[in-house]
């Protein structure tokens, strides 16, 4: 499923008034009707996708500016653990890595324990990185779950159907097989 870049389009940025201020209406979804709730979430993801990307970028920038060193240390700790796990248990271990592990078992164990110690020592930084990643995801999901669609939203979505399929969120939802039937 390859698409040329000239077909790739970004959805327009919706007004702040429509996104969250005066004309926006919010209501808890019907938790018993998952299909209707999921439809609301998907349609809002498609309609407000550029707003959601901007919101996520703003949240990530704010967290990065508040604690830049902890973010960098947390990313380093996560990368070190992932690297150690891939080198130790990865599917494509090189013969030199296998030989090193068989000859220097205690050195490899010490290295893994050292990396585990660094990870636990920087656990607050790791949690901050996880928070920085999960905050935009959760705020986008909460907004798309609570935001009621108005007539303008429905009409604009109907008009932009072709462009929405070639947008970043449209490609993501299509890859996740979550595109609504009206768009296929």
Automatic annotation (TrEMBL):
Classification via InterPro entries: Prenylated_rab_accept_PRA1 (IPR004895)
Ranges that cross the membrane: 45-65, 71-91, 103-120, 126-146
Membrane topology according to the record: Multi-pass membrane protein
GO cellular component terms, A-Z: membrane
The keyword Phosphoprotein is annotated on this UniProt entry: no
Keyword tags: Membrane, Transmembrane, Transmembrane helix
A UniProt-annotated Pfam family: PRA1
Subcellular compartments: Membrane
Entry annotated with the keyword Acyltransferase: no
Highest taxon above the source species: Eukaryota
PANTHER family recorded: PRA1 FAMILY PROTEIN, PRA1 PROTEIN
Similarity section: Belongs to the PRA1 family.
Name assigned to this protein: PRA1 family protein
């Amino acid at each position: 499923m390859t698409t040329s870049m000239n077909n790739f389009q970004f959805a327009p940025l919706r007004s702040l008034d429509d996104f969250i201020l005066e004309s926006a209406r919010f209501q808890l979804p019907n938790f018993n009707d998952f299909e209707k709730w999921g439809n609301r979430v998907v349609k809002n993801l498609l309609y407000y996708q550029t707003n959601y990307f901007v919101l996520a970028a703003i949240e990530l920038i704010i967290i990065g500016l508040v604690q830049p060193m902890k973010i960098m240390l947390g990313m380093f700790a996560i990368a070190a653990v992932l690297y150690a796990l891939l080198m130790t248990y990865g599917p494509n271990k090189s013969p030199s890595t296998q030989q090193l592990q068989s000859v220097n078992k205690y050195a490899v164990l010490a290295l893994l324990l050292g990396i585990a110690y660094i990870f636990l020592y920087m656990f607050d930084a790791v949690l901050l990185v996880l928070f920085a990643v999960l905050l935009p995801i959760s705020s986008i999901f909460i907004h798309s779950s609570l935001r009621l669609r108005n007539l303008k939203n429905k009409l604009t979505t109907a008009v932009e159907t072709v462009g929405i399929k070639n947008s970043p969120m449209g490609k993501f939802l299509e890859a996740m097989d979550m595109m609504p039937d009206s768009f296929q």
